[in-house]
Amino acid sequence: MASSEEDGSGNGSLEEKENGKKRSLGALATAWLIFYNIAMTAGWLVLGIAMARFYIQRGTHRGLFRSVQKILKFFQTFALLEVVHCAVGIVHTSVLVTGVQVSSRIFMVWFIAHSIKQIQNEESVILFLVVWTVTEITRYSFYTFNLLNHLPYFIKWARYNFFIILYPAGVVGELLTIYAALPYVKKTGMYSLRLPNKYNVSFDYYYFLIIVMFSYIPLFPQLYLHMLRQRRKVLHGEVIVEKDD
Ligand SMILES: CCCCCCCCCCCCC[C@@H](O)CC(=O)SCCNC(=O)CCNC(=O)[C@H](O)C(C)(C)COP(=O)(O)OP(=O)(O)OC[C@H]1O[C@@H](n2cnc3c(N)ncnc32)[C@H](O)[C@@H]1OP(=O)(O)O
Q1: pTM, whole model, 2 decimals?
Q2: Is the ipTM of this complex over 0.90?
Q3: Which residue minimizes the CA distance to atom 22 of ligand 1?
Q4: Transmembrane stretches, by residue range (predicted)?
């Protein structure tokens, strides 16, 4: 298989810098990241296969979330380590960008899909599940092959092109799911705190969800633009100076 180094797309001096960066990462950190990325690729692959098998055997998406939720919860929660990787500096990317991405996913898994059983069979849940799965198989295999210095060009291409469609599709799936959850949250008053209470504070999960939905408007474009910048850097060799967090 052609690697990025072999496909002629590389730039000599840039490549030397990249190799230097990998060397300076340290053997232990590199070994850990290889293990982590292989485990995550395998986890999302298992999830993808489980979803495909479920759909082929049952011919419906109803019950799919319930059947794959354990694998999803485990591997999506494990992704919290990505924020740790950035914070300790073994991965050169923004803690803020990674934090927003990971926390929004954790929120969708635990505080929406897990907590509100009535929405688990919504088509929008399947939409974001499929989109996340394709994204993560591509992304983690990209990191793994990259760390091993044998990156097939089609994986690099997929990593920096699929998101153009998948990111908005995932956002649509997530927003429609939160929207579907609103009536249940309003009816049950779940996770809400009404006055009077001994803490003398009130919290309304229903309005919190509406705020979360609106927060996609400023936050999502920043993640998307970040990925477009990464795309220009990696696929077209543009040198981009990013501001620190
Ligand atoms: C509490 C309530 C919270 C509510 C919040 C509401 C927020 C709402 C807005 C959020 C919307 C999110 C929607 C989203 O969930 C929808 C989807 O995800 S749909 C699926 C499509 N998504 C994607 O394609 C994006 C996937 N995500 C990412 O790519 C990353 O998470 C992101 C942080 C966005 C970008 O990644 P990164 O900055 O790391 O870019 P690169 O991949 O190019 O990597 C940069 C360098 O870091 C090295 N790296 C990164 N991770 C690793 C790793 N695990 N192992 C090894 N190396 C790693 C990478 O190699 C690069 O290094 P270098 O530049 O040196 O080559």
Answers
A1: 0.90
A2: yes
A3: 167
A4: 33-56, 77-100, 125-148, 160-185, 205-225
